[in-house]
Amino acid sequence: MVAGSTQTHSSWMKPTDSESSKVDFAEKVPISNSSPSTSEAVLAEDRQEHSSSSFSSQHENHSSTFSDFNLGFGERVFSAAGAAVISAILVNPLDVVKTRLQAQAAGVPYSHQEHHIHNRMGSIGPYKGTLDVFSKIVRQEGFIRLWRGTNASLALAIPTVGIYLPCYDIFRNRIEALTADHAPHLTPYAPLVAGAVARSLACISCYPIELARTRMQASKELKNGVKPPGVWKTLLGVLNPVSRTYSLHNSQGYRLLWTGVGAQVARDVPFSAICWSTLEPMRRRILCLVGEENGASVLGANFSAGFVAGSLAAAATCPLDVAKTRRQIEKDLVRQLNMTTRQTVMEVWRDGGVKGLFMGVGLRVARAGPSVGIVVSFYEVVKYVLHQRHTPPRV
The domain 76-390: what is its CATH number? Predict the structure, then answer.
């Protein structure tokens, strides 16, 4: 039919609307010459089919033009890794401050015992807000301390994003192709499902490094010349308490390296689902309005859509981020092995109410918006450049 022919030919080879209508009408007249009403019904059906196929073709062509380039998995990973490096370095100070506020609310002491009231799950600590955290970290620990955990962030971001974004691309493309053939009404949900599945794979694969990063950011070291522990020593510190009672070859010991993975997945899966289901239609709409395909339009559309989508998703999932931080900084061995995400969320609710559940939400939004915008826009621009190199010049 017309839909198949228009999608397999170049634009200059496509028949005009009137020509396509004449061809289809001529084909269907012999079948429908029994009655005028039947002919009218056939014509109406043909118009509707032509209209829907044109819209579908336009939507698919637009999507493939900007984000479905025929690149290999390695090239997608390269694009994602570059994006991860830039994002991790730029937003790390916000992540440190957010983690400190959440850890303080969970009872981590950040001053001498005589200067604050402290209990296991709540404290009146030295930090009174975002600017106060920035100021005291710089004054007491040094400016460079705002990038504490950046090595862990890089070690985490490169493999995580390298798994996450390429897998998202592949899953989304295949789900969209499958639903377009069998269930077109489900196609808009492809980004949601693809984002959730891809993020789950990335999260579980790289979780121990995420655990080390959170503990490194939550810890406080004064300017005493002692080098703070790195990623490897931090992970060994996680295993040390259990090494006295369990063999390190026992899975019970290594299970500690995935302390809080349930909270992490519970946070990241809805974050990705909200983010991608918001980002995809928004960036496609922006690119449709811009019309022209070039590096600047790809960068602007993806950064704008990523910034908005990341901010919304971060705000919606903040309670789960608070629960994740508490699970990761927990030092009690029994609680590490037995606490669940649901119990942690209820504990936060009992101790701090709504304020406790949304502790650090401003910093989380301020971090996630630019981070998603940077990662997605850089990723898509590099894909665009690689695609341009692979595409022969038009004659």
Answer: 1.50.40.10
